[in-house]
Write a structure and sequence with these properties.
The protein has helices spanning 2-13, 28-38, 53-69, 100-110, 131-142, 160-171, 194-201, and strands at residues 44-47, 74-77, 88-92, 116-123, 150-156, 175-180, 206-210. By secondary structure, it is an alpha/beta fold.
Length: 211
């Protein structure tokens, strides 16, 4: 394992100084959690393949546990891409006040890439809100922030999960961002199917911020 890690370091990070590595004998999510806290990390990046049913279960479980156990943002990506870029970003939210901290983290992340931001609110039959009210809610949420390159989207679908997936596919976005672990808003779906399915099934990176 050490040789494999050193080869990876040489092949991908040879031109970057101060690259450290560590091997921990723990289960994946505990090892990531403990080492991240040890080095006071600002971001965790996790790869996810999920090519078999077993991988889906193991990767999904470890990803979810890692997100639950860390306060810092986590970026989950599953495809190799030589043209990896973050030019079109989605922040999917219900735009409640308790998601402000997650949104601020997302804005801080996005400024590094001069990206176009798509602010996305999903309406479902179970929790429907007319377009005008939804748009005003988003506008009120972002009014105190100095956002320049953005657009607001109110998207209707059968579920929040399907709405995020379908919108992101239609717009061919580069990254989907979600808030997690709150008592309201989209974060409550993380314990259900939305974020888990996004991390497994979407070929787009998923960035999570804890509320």
């Amino acid at each position: 394992m050490r040789d494999k890690l050193l080869n990876y370091k040489t092949n991908f990070f040879s031109k970057i100084p101060n690259i450290n590595h560590a091997i921990r004998f723990q289960n994946p999510y505990e090892g990531i959690r403990d080492y991240s806290k040890k080095i006071d990390a600002d971001l965790v990046i996790m790869g996810s393949k999920g090519q078999t049913a077993l991988e889906e279960i193991l990767i999904g479980s470890n990803t979810e546990k890692t997100v639950r156990s860390l306060e810092i943002p986590i970026l989950i990506t599953k495809k190799e891409d030589d043209n990896f870029k973050f030019k079109k970003l989605v922040f999917a939210s219900t735009f409640e006040k308790d998601e402000a901290r997650a949104f601020e983290g997302f804005l801080d992340f996005s400024t590094n890439f001069k990206a176009k931001i798509h602010l996305l609110k999903i309406n479902t039959p179970q929790k429907f809100e007319n377009t005008s009210s939804s748009k005003k809610k988003v506008e009120s949420f972002i009014e105190k922030y100095n956002i320049k390159n953005y657009s607001i989207h109110i998207y209707n679908d059968n579920s929040v999960e399907e709405g995020i997936l379908n919108f992101s596919d239609e717009k061919d976005v580069d990254l989907i961002s979600l808030a997690t672990h709150g008592r309201s808003g989209l974060s409550r779906f993380f314990n259900g199917s939305v974020s888990l399915n996004l991390s497994k099934n979407v070929l787009k990176p998923v960035l999570t911020f804890k509320v």
